[in-house]
Amino acid sequence: MKRCEWVKLEEPLYVEYHDKEWGVPVYDDQHLFEMLCLEGAQAGLSWWTILQKRKGYRAAFDQFDASKIILYTEDKLEELRQDTRIVRNKLKIASVVSNAQAFLKIQEKYGSFSHYIWGFVDHQPIVNEWSSIAEVPVTTEISDRMSKQLKKDGFKFVGSTICYSYMQAIGMVNDHVTDCFCHTGGLMMNIDEIKAQLVRQATIFATGGIRPTHDLLESWIGFVGWSLPEEQRPKEFQPLATLFLKELPFVPESLQSIELLTVFIHEEIFHHLIEDDLSRFFEIRVYTSLKGLIQRNWQHDHIRAFPLMPKLIVNDYPSWDGGGIPCEVEDEILRLENDEELDYFDDIVEEIYAVHKIGGYPAFCQSGHDYGEDYPFVLQIASDEKAYFNIVDSGNFYFFFNPTLKEWRVHCDFY
């Protein structure tokens, strides 16, 4: 059985690490944090040195439980500086504490560290085709970008070389040479790994349930309450929604420069729902600043207007036939279903959010629709019983936005 040249074949610990860990995707937050700290400890040393000390590191740093590490006192740090089980470098030891603080902030902001870190590779492992270990780079454009962002987010000992080594260690990149038995183009995935690759965050909205204030930052269905002074209500269009993105718990990257969207819908749209792109039946006004807005009282003639209450969700998954599943992951799902080890809707999809939503996945009723990578899905406006808004048979409008061209695409489906 052939392995990569760097493996110390006489050392069972090293062989096991190569065979079972290096290049294998990791999605567990605590393991990801552990590996980030260990890669930082490796700086200026060999990985073999750190690997031999890993058990000692786990014992010394409370199994890399970040919630415990952030409570370390100066006495605890001095104790660690005398601990022969680890690398007794003052700066490296201190970095574990500061990294724990940054790690917990990332979890709070993104829902999980896994979602944050895997975003650097679009949640897909990179499988390289190296014939020799000499071809493997020590940094890449992605590791450069990761390093810069990690430093910005408060992490220490995260230079580009360390970041690339980390990417290899947690399987974000598979750099096993092509004649190594581990270079299979991806070891078989289990259900948790599939879920970790697919999961997205979103902001969903509940209709009503609060007393309206008509203040800035209050989103609405059936009502547009703000515009610039020179803007008027468009003719033959009805006000559909006011969506303040500023201060929402989650906004997709392509909308992050926008603070407010107002949406108007053409009165004739329901005669054209089967068209491929319905964007001509919507006027979508985009505001990158809230300065200079004035209040309006533009209400839909037939929809009951309600304020919307935002809520963060961290478990949005694509409907099985709704697009958004990479081919490699789809192959693994089919393999597991054929082996009767998985039922997609029981084991992967926790809930389909067919509600007003920003981010996440479109909750398609029928087979999915896609306008390509340049037009990511960003917004869903759903049928709303409370607001008396029904899109044929409980359908939805799905909005896709190209941030470069500032263009929208809109699709509709219904039961």
What does the secondary structure layout of this molecule look like, with pairings?
Elements: H1 12-20, H2 29-42, H3 47-52, H4 54-60, H5 66-69, H6 74-81, H7 90-110, H8 113-118, E1 126-127, H9 141-152, H10 160-169, E2 173-174, H11 191-198, E3 200-207, E4 219-221, E5 223-227, E6 237-244, E7 260-266, E8 282-287, E9 294-299, E10 306-316, H12 327-338, H13 344-348, E11 357-359, E12 377-382, E13 396-402, E14 407-413
Parallel strand pairs: 1-2
Antiparallel strand pairs: 3-10, 3-11, 4-6, 4-10, 5-9, 6-7, 7-8, 11-12, 12-13, 13-14
Helix pairs in contact: 2-7, 2-10, 9-10
H/E topology pattern: HHHHHHHHEHHEHEEEEEEEEHHEEEE
On the 0 to 100 scale, the average pLDDT is: 92
Helical fraction: 25-40%
User: What fraction strand?
Assistant: 15-25%
Distance between the termini: 54 Å
| Strand line-up in the sheet with most strands | 8-7-6-4-10-3-11-12-13-14
Which shape, going by the Cα principal axes? elongated
The number of helical segments is: 13
The class by helix and strand makeup works out as: alpha+beta
Radius of gyration: 25 Å
